[in-house]
């Protein structure tokens, strides 16, 4: 977890947010919204604080939130989970990922993920003492090659960690890819861990939770978070659902990581999960139109744009602008155009970086006027 010079290295998101703060550039690097989400969710948190919901909540999460998570899984996906035994509330999706990997991965075990991957995956696999095996998703479609996916599994595979909709490519993994993952997990007796934090933020391709595929639910830990759906990334309320024995094992780790978290935010997230379907569709539509605004602007500025199916981010190739190295490009971008992005090389293993060298990730979870201003500034590059 140390940088190349042996000192603790900040994450690329912290690094690029600091660059934006230092230069006054528009921060399209770190993925967090600059507007509040549904008022009903915010009001419920304020009410909970005023009503004295300010002490340690129950270890697995408040019964109200666990019930709302179970209702959510049944309502949106037809997945039946027992709120008392098969749901765990965590400090964001990050803690759910950490507790799950620490619970199941032993030194020498292999964890398969697609690549690029969210930066925490590589770090958490190392913290657990595991070996990270990656399957590339390459431009322009960012779908895995089936033979490469099959070859990534072995008798040492303990976990396959899937992320859909995918950060940073925005790909919603199709059912056929997920079915191959389930087949391989069964064949090698691996646990499926699925990070679905962008589950409600899809544009036209519907999100398929891998736990809904035949044979998957009994070996799948499904992870999500309120941060993205309700624009409350700072609340750090996440959750996971899995069979009771899997949840037991993960609780045994969570109880010593954070013990519990976010008491007054838990009823607020429960209120959010129970909002009418139209609210969720509205959130996705709003983000979809922001994505159009930024993607069109990037194309006009001369980038090759790789359109996402969902999530917060769009990838842009800098080669048409004469740049081969996106990290170098990102470090110069605040001075050149007053905008910050994140190089996709930060989401891959250093030895695999060449394949992603010219790609930049830009976040569009920002106000329309902010995106319009960023697009104006980027036009200067053309
Ligand atoms: N997984 C993915 C794919 C993410 O993009 C993020 C962060 N934004 C997280 C997990 C972390 O979620 P949380 O803030 O709920 O810990
Ligand atoms: N998930 C957010 C992103 O991908 C950042 C979260 C973080 O800074 N760790 O930008």
Automatic annotation (TrEMBL):
Record's keyword annotation contains Transferase: yes
Keywords for the protein's UniProt record, in alphabetical order: Aminotransferase, Pyridoxal phosphate, Transferase
Cofactor(s) needed: pyridoxal 5'-phosphate
InterPro entries: Aminotransferase_I/II_large (IPR004839), Kynurenine-oxoglutarate_AT (IPR051326), PyrdxlP-dep_Trfase (IPR015424), PyrdxlP-dep_Trfase_major (IPR015421), PyrdxlP-dep_Trfase_small (IPR015422)
Aminotransferase class I/classII large domain boundaries: 25-377
MF terms in GO: transaminase activity
SUPFAM superfamilies linked to this entry: PLP-dependent transferases (SSF53383)
Keyword Transferase: yes
Protein name listed in UniProt: Aminotransferase class I/II-fold pyridoxal phosphate-dependent enzyme
Organism from which the protein derives: Curtobacterium caseinilyticum
């Amino acid at each position: 977890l140390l940088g190349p010079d042996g000192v603790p290295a900040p994450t690329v998101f912290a690094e690029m947010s600091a660059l934006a703060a230092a230069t006054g550039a528009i921060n399209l690097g770190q993925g967090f919204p600059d507007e509040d989400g549904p008022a009903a969710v915010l009001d419920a948190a304020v009410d909970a604080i005023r009503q004295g919901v300010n002490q340690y909540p129950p270890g697995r999460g408040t019964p109200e939130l666990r019930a709302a998570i179970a209702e959510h899984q049944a309502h949106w996906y037809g997945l039946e989970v027992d709120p008392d035994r098969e749901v765990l509330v965590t400090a964001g999706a990050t803690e759910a990922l950490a507790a799950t990997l620490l619970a199941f991965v032993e030194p020498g075990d292999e964890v398969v993920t697609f690549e690029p991957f969210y930066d925490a995956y590589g770090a958490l696999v190392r913290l657990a003492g595991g070996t990270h095996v990656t399957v590339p998703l390459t431009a322009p479609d960012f779908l895995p090659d089936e033979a490469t996916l099959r070859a990534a599994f072995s008798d040492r595979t303990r976990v396959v960690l899937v992320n859909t909709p995918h950060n940073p490519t925005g790909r919603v993994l199709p059912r056929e890819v997920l079915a191959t993952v389930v087949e391989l997990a069964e064949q090698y007796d691996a646990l499926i861990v699925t990070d679905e934090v962008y589950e409600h933020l899809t544009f036209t391709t519907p999100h398929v939770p891998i736990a809904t595929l035949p044979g998957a639910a009994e070996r799948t830990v499904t992870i999500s978070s309120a941060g993205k759906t309700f624009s409350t990334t700072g609340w750090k309320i996440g959750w996971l659902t899995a069979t009771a024995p899997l949840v037991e094992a993960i609780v045994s780790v969570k109880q010593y990581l954070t013990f519990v978290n976010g008491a007054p935010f838990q009823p607020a997230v429960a209120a959010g999960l129970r909002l009418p379907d139209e609210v969720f569709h509205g959130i996705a539509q709003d983000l979809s139109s922001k994505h159009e605004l930024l993607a069109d602007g990037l194309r006009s500025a001369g980038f090759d744009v790789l359109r996402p199916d969902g999530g917060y981010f769009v990838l842009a190739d800098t080669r048409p602008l004469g740049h081969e190295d996106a990290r170098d490009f990102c470090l110069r971008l605040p001075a050149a155009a007053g905008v910050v992005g994140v190089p996709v090389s930060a989401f891959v293993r250093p030895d695999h970086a060449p394949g992603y060298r010219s790609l930049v990730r830009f976040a569009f979870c920002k106000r329309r006027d902010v995106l319009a201003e960023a697009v104006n500034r980027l036009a200067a590059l053309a």
